[in-house]
């Protein structure tokens, strides 16, 4: 899968991009710009450590494959969101835990440095109530999250270190089982714990104590069952989809959607094409990409020259082996509208997986975000509903975790 192949150094996104979003009506665009818009899963911190890359500059999704930067956030009307500390799953050993811990701390430092370097445009948010005034001041909202709790090793008290850094949402697993929980996509296709491990239950208790929101995305359905049964606060799925639309392990079924909503939780809709619908295999492309990412894994730190070379190779792969059967904006909206129908507008949000594999035809980068607002309005949802979907629901879950902490 994407992040596993890219490991520490990254070209950031795998999918080729070629189709621009259609224009939205001026009145809808103006409304979108007025809304408080937060994405619950930004993998953009991976871009911060790329050589020669700056969040301050406008980049092109067609040239360097990145999807989020400050100029595009302003144009696309994205006020901010949850900037993820993502760590690839490694060996469940003392050495593996140590390396993952160090990597995760440094990635968190990169996020904090982004904020410190430009206080006129970025502000760290630590509580739900921080988001509105930050956006009102014309700045981007920077909540922090962890995708894959693997770097915590076997010491759940380490969560406090990340909490003090600013982390407020934590996901338990990623593409493979780890010490805390079963993954929905482990290569073995067999459960390890049948949900949360005993250590995972201890981690959940610590999350509830600190006021950290539990994130069930990437974890198995049985993990979600455990979280719904044991968590003292609502559960978030920061970037997921609906099994009823496309039966993929990364998506959840209607019964789980209803159970999530009944406990006050929220599903944030993903735009990762492989999870939205089936596509025709493209083996030549996959082999070429596999070789390219093998080179990435060999270079722990990319020089600007090496990155330019790899980008050129990536563009050549797109030319030779174009992906002609990509998921589309309509596929994304099918998942969104189904979740809204089943769970209701109080329990659905947006987490598109930008810079981590998200992006489909017609929804290529953050410049295209007004299309979502337009589509929701066209589907009959009110401005108040759209505001909840864009930020109100995720902030409610965060506020609930804050209110219950220490209890």
TrEMBL record:
Classification via InterPro entries: Metal_Hydrolase, Pept_M19
Q: Does the keyword Hydrolase apply?
A: yes
**Which keywords are on file for this protein?**
Dipeptidase, Hydrolase, Protease, Signal
Q: Which domain of life does the protein's organism represent?
A: Bacteria
GO BP terms: proteolysis
- Output the Gene Ontology terms for molecular function: metallodipeptidase activity
EC numbers: 3.4.13.19
Signal sequence coordinates: 1-21
Q: Which CDD domains match?
A: rDP_like
Please give the name of this protein: Membrane dipeptidase
